[in-house]
């Protein structure tokens, strides 16, 4: 019985040939992400924006305009209503001025007003409150977590390979994070703590994919000392292509299932992961590896911990 193969053996795609186009595309994506971030901003969830969120379920399809009319006269200030998942699910957002914290009297009063107005005609599924001070701390912590993760990845690659490899890996990671943030700014999907968790997961996934390619490049640098660096990188990527695509495909199957059936609560996480898998795979092939051509790598690898073994074969 033959095994299912998404990628045939002994492929010979010329990835390096398109590196200039790929780099231009990546730069354009990163610049667009920066513009979108400042022009449209991110649709921060309650984790980062602060305030109170009340999730309710109506007995039938929700009448958003009717609910807005009922709650609009309560003096709640910044009030937003939106559908959340099914037709009868509604998310009510109350701004920080009226939802400073879960124990704040004003926040409790806002929740009480909503409950008194809607009564028992709806089901209260979730009530969450985050104060402005806590949300500000969460933004700083989340930003620091992503920056530290990328910095530690650079150190890891530097010690395992060489600084040139580390630079290529970090540029790929920055590309992945920027592109993911850009798509969230473009689509105005909710950006919350689960999205940060997805970004950190993307950093790890992309780095794992990049290390596999780099490890094969290092191995081939020992074997083929006279081979052109561009050809050697193409060879290395092709040799790891089947593993890369199979890993991405199986991960995406699970993520698409979560995106479709997992509900609204984890939708931002699964969307970020799905998009991150695509851009992470792309960057490992078209960003991280071609950087080595621009800055060059050494051909001699010692017999120490970083360069195990002597050259056994010459092209």
Automatic annotation (TrEMBL):
Keyword Transport: yes
Location(s) in or outside the cell: Cell membrane
Transmembrane parts of this sequence: 21-39, 138-159, 166-187, 193-217, 245-263, 269-295
Molecular function per GO: protein-transporting ATPase activity
Principal cellular location given in the protein's record: membrane
Sequence ranges assigned to domain Protein export membrane protein SecD/SecF C-terminal in this UniProt record: 112-296
Pfam families: Sec_GG (PF07549), SecD_SecF_C (PF02355)
Gene Ontology cellular component list: plasma membrane
Highest taxon listed in the record's lineage: Bacteria
Membrane-topology descriptor: Multi-pass membrane protein
Keyword terms, alphabetized: Cell membrane, Membrane, Protein transport, Translocation, Transmembrane, Transmembrane helix, Transport
InterPro entries: SecD/SecF_arch_bac, SecD/SecF_bac, SecD/SecF_CS, SecD_SecF_C, SecD_SecF_C_bact, SecF_bac
Gene Ontology terms: biological process: intracellular protein transmembrane transport; protein targeting; protein transport by the Sec complex
Family annotation (NCBIfam families): 2A0604s01, transloc_SecF
Self-association state and partner proteins as the record states: Forms a complex with SecD. Part of the essential Sec protein translocation apparatus which comprises SecA, SecYEG and auxiliary proteins SecDF-YajC and YidC.
Sequence similarity: Belongs to the SecD/SecF family. SecF subfamily.
Cited function: Part of the Sec protein translocase complex. Interacts with the SecYEG preprotein conducting channel. SecDF uses the proton motive force (PMF) to complete protein translocation after the ATP-dependent function of SecA.
Protein name as catalogued: Protein-export membrane protein SecF
Organism: Parvibaculum sedimenti
Underlying gene: secF
